Amino acid sequence: MMALEQARREISALSALATAVLPVEEALGHVLAAPILAQQDIPHVATSAMDGWALAAPPESGPGVPSWELRAETAHSPVRQAAPLGAGEAAEVVTGSPVPDGTVSVLRTEHGIISGRTLTPARTSGDLAEGRNVRAAGTECPAGTQLLPSGAVLTPARAAVAAVAGHDRLEVVRRPRVVLILTGEEVITTGIPRGGQVRDVFGIALPGMVTEMGAGTVESLRLGDDPEMLSRELRRITEAGEADLVITSGGTAHSRADSLRPALHALGAEILVDSVDMRPGHPALFARLSGAAGTVHLLGLPGNPLAGFAALAALGAPLFDALGGVPADQRSRALSLTAGAPLQGAARGVRLVPVRSGPSGAVPAGHSSPHMMRGLADSDALAIVPQDGVVQGEQVQCLEIPGQRRGGHRWDE
Ligand SMILES: Nc1nc2c(c(=O)[nH]1)N[C@H]1C(S)=C(S)[C@@H](COP(=O)(O)OP(=O)(O)OC[C@H]3O[C@@H](n4cnc5c(N)ncnc54)[C@H](O)[C@@H]3O)O[C@H]1N2
Ligand code: MOO
């Protein structure tokens, strides 16, 4: 039995998967394996920030507002740069189009009065000031600037900045290919359970959860409780080299009906974490299977619904972070929340308590026995409560519940 903190540390220390070069769209959600640099100045040419007219230096004229001569040729094209402006000349521009050389400022459409080919700015317009409404080249950054560091997760906004910088393909850490093996003869996937049947919770929730945690692909298999069938399946997966990570549900305990430990034993698997000192979820295990095609890691989640999901939140987060290449110092993240009510500890180890936000902070969500789902469904986080408990007002470390952030309560309410 290993302390939760130590189990998370051991798992966090795993090496990242290999890197791959992917088109930007496919690289979304991956961790960058190399920094992203600007390949040229951004913007690379001076452009107009307004629809209007690019103005050359003001013409020599008497007192009052000067006028410009409108060039016959327009600079309507947002891509083509018009010929340089002559003295006293103005040329039409649209937002984003390159301004002609010699542009001092851009006069926006609504500030100009045209009479024949003469353009006169409104008396009150501030658009004559040098540089007004012109986006100078390199103002966002000069060429060579680092826009994103290696180790950053490529969010949609970061993919967009990589595209702005002219990148088509990015070097990223591969995301784990996951196979879910859902065990249990009594588990049904449709309809109302009868007799000793239970409706499956893992097959429905795990794919979304592990995808959010950083899985690349997810496949699911269903097996009964036969250890021989389970070890055959695990051998096949390891030899085929078709997965980086297997996550199983059920069969983690020590009764004759529990298949996971006997199956791993038969395969000579290396058990890296054999039970964790946490309630619920203590029979969880983490193992390594080696075959000719490489290494496959295995996370065994207990079958009791809350126990299984608690084990995923506790051990899965550092695991996906490590395999997916999240920098080492960010792999075992926990939130610190204020306890809005006393939180009771377990007789030993830590207790993982589903909590939701209340006016005074995190309060137990209730309905949180290991076989239940209601508490987790109504919670925002899992508080890691030490043996002595936590008093109201004290800070408590909490785990994120995968996939629950969007649907959760709001901590700032
Ligand atoms: N003598 C002991 N018995 C048990 C111990 C123990 O220490 N000594 N530990 C208990 C704890 S704690 C847990 S957690 C469970 C672990 O169980 P397993 O991982 O072996 O899981 P199963 O026995 O297969 O199932 C347990 C429970 O969960 C239900 N289940 C399984 N799969 C699903 C699913 N996909 N969807 C919904 N529910 C599922 C299953 O029907 C059982 O009710 O062991 C305790 N026993
Ligand atoms: O892991 Mo069991 O409580 O922890 O149901």
Automatic annotation (TrEMBL):
This protein's UniProt keywords: Magnesium, Metal-binding, Molybdenum, Molybdenum cofactor biosynthesis, Transferase
Which EC numbers characterise this protein's activity in its record?
Answer: 2.10.1.1
Q: Name one Pfam family in it.
A: MoeA_N
**Could you say which enzyme class this protein belongs to?**
transferase
Q: Does the keyword Transferase apply?
A: yes
Give the matching CDD domains.
Answer: MoeA
GO molecular function terms listed in the Swiss-Prot or TrEMBL record: molybdopterin molybdotransferase activity
Q: What does this protein do?
A: Catalyzes the insertion of molybdate into adenylated molybdopterin with the concomitant release of AMP.
Q: What family does the database annotate?
A: Belongs to the MoeA family.
Q: What is this protein called?
A: Molybdopterin molybdenumtransferase
The organism's taxonomy opens as: Bacteria, Bacillati, Actinomycetota, Actinomycetes, Micrococcales
